[in-house]
Amino acid sequence: MNISELYEKYTHDELNSMPGDKQLRYEVLSPLFNNLYENKVIYHERVTSIIQLENIILTPNKFEATAIKLKLFEPIPNSFKRIASLNSWTIGGNWAYLTLDKRGCLCPYSGWLMWIEPELVKKVEELINKGNFEEARNMTIEKY
Predict the structure, then answer these.
(1) Taking phi first (over 0 means left), then psi (-120 to 50 degrees means alpha), and beta for anything else, what does residue 54 get?
(2) Are 41 and 50 in contact (CB under 8 A)?
(3) 3-state secondary structure the chain
(4) What is the pLDDT of residues 69-92, one digit of tens each?
(5) How confident is residue 34, by pLDDT bands cut at 50, 70 and 90?
(6) Cut 0.85: pTM above it
């Protein structure tokens, strides 16, 4: 099931309330990680980048993965240069606090945003490779 289908099948509260039904979120959101585009996702935490997920762990309690930075959206504000210099880190979240935002991204109670739809990730990566950062941002972080 893709994200559009999830929005049609489940209510806003089922996908966005905090805390949410941990078991439901695990059953609904964890399968999304089985169909990633080359294990790549779009990740935003002060800076936006395309990352590759490795060592993905999906349990009934949490999601966790190693994030490997592949490409940054540009330009990077000077105040975020240190954050942008990270090459790998661990991300994750408890299913009860992981929501599916109206912009089509997963997000925990605070911190990061992550777009995982394979077609979107592929299109955004193509835009970044062409230097079209504005359109890539409009499809993700600037959406809505």
Answers:
(1) beta
(2) yes
(3) CCHHHHHHHCCHHHHHCCCCCHHHHHHHHHHHHHHCECCEEEEEECEEEEEEEEEEEECCCEEEEEEEEEEECCCCCHHHHHHHCCCEEEEEEEHHHCEECCCCCEECCCCCEEECCHHHHHHHHHHHHCCCHHHHHHCCCCCC
(4) 999 887 677 667 777 787 899 999
(5) very high
(6) yes
